Amino acid sequence: MSKKVKPYKNSDLSKKQQVTKMFDTISKEYDGLNRVISFGIDVKWRKKVVALVSKIKPDSILDIATGTGDLAINLTATNAKNIVGLDISEGMLNVGRDKIAKKGLENTIEMVLGDSENLPFEDNTFDAITVAFGVRNFENLDKGLTEILRVLKPNGLFVILETSVPTKTPFKQGYNIYTKGIMPLIGKLFSKDKVAYSYLSESASAFPYGEALNNILLKNGFINAKALPQTLGVATIYTATKQ
Description:
- The chain is of the alpha/beta class.
- It has 8 helices and 7 strands.
- It has helices spanning 15-38, 41-54, 70-74, 90-102, 141-151, 171-190, 196-206, 211-219; strands at 60-64, 82-87, 109-113, 126-132, 152-163, 223-230, 235-241.
- It has a 7-stranded mixed sheet, with helices on both faces.
- Helix 1 crosses helix 4 (90-102) and helix 6 packs antiparallel against helix 7 (196-206).
- The longest helix is centred in the N-terminal third of the chain and has 24 residues, at 15-38.
């Protein structure tokens, strides 16, 4: 298991409270700065997640750590009748609600304030559940995954999109230079929260990826766990199902 990385090292708040505070602070700048930092490649990764989910023809989808709703909006391409975007940051959700309203998707997407480790849904509710760049922010990863398994329908699909660390030279070295030096610098220059992007970088490096995360999924009751590296390994898409 990874070490617990928190946004504010001198704060007495729990990781969950710190993450909520951080995303509330950067909510209005998040989309634009995220596009710059990722060079827009995250858009391509999300499309791959949508393609995977589309294969099972879901009626209901839960997008956890939905943030400003990018993936939830993309998932309307699956023709699911009901999409729920859940996040602990009201600031991020409000930005997402504005985007959804502008696209006229209020009847398809519902944005819900909630905790991934205590999901406000009945057992076996969703055909598919997605998390994009959110599992590393869970306070208790095992508890969050157990909750996800609980509300996923039998034979349902769980898809994670998360950052990972390239293993091959020179990509690993380049990744380290960018994420530990350049990315935090961009955040300090342009973000209201001067430590937010340092946390996002540090938490990505410390979080288990590849086979390690697959094993965590299997330990928590998922089956058929697979890791699909993206863009030289700087991100990975994970898929798993429920018995």
